[in-house]
Specification:
The protein is mostly helical. It has helices at residues 4-34, 44-73, 78-106, 111-155, 182-209, 215-261. The longest helix is centred in the last third of the chain and has 47 residues, at 215-261.
Length: 262
């Protein structure tokens, strides 16, 4: 099982590294191509925008999965809170980086740029806070149920009560999704919230833009809304993969111990 220091290092690496990669890599290229008369009419800005969205989803999935993992597998909830603060620091770096790129390219910062980045930072913080609260609620409920079950078994002499840190029944996953598995449930809930946020912003933009005037515009809207739903699915898949990478070594170590005892 990963120690708290290992979890913190992973959070620092992927959140801060991802923030720098987006701001000074993808966003820089996006602004350069989007303001260039030659590349503006090509698909390059759109491709870069898609990569920015996918990288953001990956960062969310890794950071929030580490928060959930820390909530379930650490001795105290403080570890999950520490991961949240690391994520929040990376989110601040990302927004400051975007402002720095805009200032570097255009030599001036408009009020709308500052306001947009402040709004996005607040939304990033809210998403992280929601993930933290969900992790706390589910981990507390799970530990309470496990403690109750273990106490009953010990009372009737089946076996001694197991420590709450022993949560092997959560992994490996038996289904693509199981409502009974709190790790998968946390991933699904946050994925739905992330998709809902994207759809809400899309809806507000469409309302301000006006009703579609042709069948082609309707189809474009359908594709965009479908992509927003896909964001939640991608988040869930990445989150499950993160859990797999975190928990697989622990499972393999336990199997090795059993084989040695035989």
């Amino acid at each position: 099982m990963k120690t708290n220091k290992q979890i913190y290092r992973l959070a620092l690496l992927f959140t801060f590294g991802g923030a720098l990669f987006i701001s000074f890599g993808l966003s820089l290229l996006y602004n350069l191509t989007n303001s260039n008369i030659v590349y503006y009419a090509t698909v390059i800005p759109d491709i870069l925008n898609v990569w920015i969205d996918l990288t953001e989803v990956a960062i969310f999935a890794i950071a929030f999965s580490l928060i959930v993992y820390a909530a379930f597998y650490s001795q105290t909830f403080r570890s999950a809170v520490t991961v949240f603060w690391i994520y929040l620091g990376a989110a601040l770096l990302r927004r400051l980086g975007d402002l720095g790129v805009a200032l570097l390219l255009f030599r001036v910062l408009e009020l709308t740029d500052i306001l947009n980045n402040v709004i996005f930072l607040i939304l990033d913080a809210l998403l992280g806070l929601i993930a933290l609260l969900i992790a706390k609620k589910r981990s507390v409920r799970y530990r309470g149920q496990k403690k109750w079950s273990s106490s009953d078994s010990a009372l009737f002499g089946d076996h001694p009560a197991e420590p709450l840190s022993d949560t092997d029944e959560l992994y490996p996953f038996r289904k693509i999704f199981s409502r009974e598995n709190p790790l998968q449930l946390c991933a699904l809930i946050v994925g739905i919230i992330l998709s809902a946020e994207k759809i809400l912003f899309r809806l507000l933009f469409d309302l301000s833009y006006g009703a579609p005037e042709s069948f082609a515009e309707v189809m474009i809207m359908v594709v965009y809304y479908a992509s927003d739903i896909l964001i939640g699915i991608i988040y869930y898949c990445i989150s499950v993969l993160v859990y797999h990478q975190l928990l697989r070594p622990k499972k393999q170590k336990k199997k090795s111990r059993k084989q040695l005892l035989k």
